[in-house]
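Weekly puzzle thread! Below is a chain. First person to post its structure in token form gets bragging rights.
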Amino acid sequence: MPNNHMDNYSTTAEASCSWDAVVIGSGLGGLVTASQLAKKGAKVLVLERYTIPGGSGGSFLRDGYTFDVGASMIFGFGKQGYTNLLTRALAEVGEVCETFPDPVQLSYHLPRGFNLSVARNYEQFISDLTSRFPHEAVGIRKFYDTCWQVFNCLDSMPLLSIEDPSYLAKVFFKAPFSCLGLARWLPINVGDVAKRFIKDPDLLRFIDIECFCWSVMPADQTPMINAGMVFSDRHAGGINYPKGGVGVIAQKLVHGLKRHGGDIRYKSRVKKILLKDKKAIGVQLANGEEIHAKTVVSNATRWDTFGGEHVRNPLIDQLATPKAEAKWRDLYKPSPSFLSLHLGVNEHIIPQTTHCHHLILERWEEMENEQGVAFLSMPTLLDHSLAPNGKHIVHAFTPSSMHNWDKLSPKDYAEKKEKDANQLIKKIERVFPGLSAEISHKEIGTPRSHRRFLGRHQGSYGPIPSKRLAGLLPMQFNTTKIEGLFCVGDSCFPGQGLNAVAFSGFACAHRIGANLGINPWALPE
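Winning reply:
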């Protein structure tokens, strides 16, 4: 179970040590990087500003409840193939996470009575969607089968750093057609493919919300590579919830890191990245302590790392920021943060036959608006141990931008929290009538909460395009223009989501491992 009382400092993490790699932040991308490097023999230290690991992939305890910080719709816990990156990341360091299979990815509650649950069984999902749009039967099949083509390419090869020429040569020799297939899809967005097969405007709107529920972008801006993974993996490996809460993933990665000689320090906020002769040589903590390393890995956002408009105290001095980062900021902007509710409710208000995850949208034109879409997660329907007897968890969240919260007085801030929380509860009650009278515990989080506890610029959960881009081609990789400095997480290829940041972690560790000369020659089995 998550522990809010971890040691502040490790006995082996001394400032006088010189590390092979120091990782800033213990989000899942940073922990996968650190644990992978430690397994290869590198001396690795993770520095976490908070008291628990995981970042937005963590959990916290309140009055007998184990609440997930972020979403609990988890990909990457399947058993077969190469795309089950959370399973693989844990197994690589000798850890296993017990999971509960979810029979349904998501239940949609959409305008004009359009309700649909995405079944784990692919043919069932296609049948259910076709019954709603019988005139688009051919187009539905062709679109989602095309997503399978992308997924099958991904699932047929080890997913490591595409910045390493030797890796690319090996994987091309192993799976040449898959490599060529992926290259074809890199510059393509979902909307381009959907419109090739589908004409019905409501069905195209459904494809938009299918993308928005995990990318916070409509189909025209969502890369086809990412959609191929999500739209197919939910039927292949499926959605699987970790026993004990999402934070267990981070805890087990920390165990694996330590087992292989790495370490982590909590309450250790990095103030800046140290540079010498334009090379990263370590970090300075808020208390003035300096820790030196051959390699520095930032699991902070690229805004928090390199700065930008309205960024508070970036880790790199603005005079040293590479021009490539300024160009990247012209292409991408922070996605909205969230207003979030962590509720404990009386068990009887949630029907036993309901599904774990729900999305509510009342009007199509509100999809990208402030607090337009509501997401619900009730993980106690899968794991009863997360709440006291007779209780369920309802985690509700809706996109909300920092500029609506940032300059409020304490009084206005408190009033807005309650008002917006009550509006969100009313929206939930259209699916679960009477919920407000059954709430026994309530926590309200805002973009300011996400910024404070997660240390993320504007409380954002990652970058989204500021204009229509060519798929994943413009996305930055792990290397930076500063020697010895790498980035990992949702600001890097391939973007947002726990499975995506796990990919980023594998890729980052592989790229650094190539520099340190510690990568195994053979590809993973």
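Puzzle host: Confirmed. Bonus trivia for everyone else. Confidence is low (pLDDT under 50) at residues 1-16.
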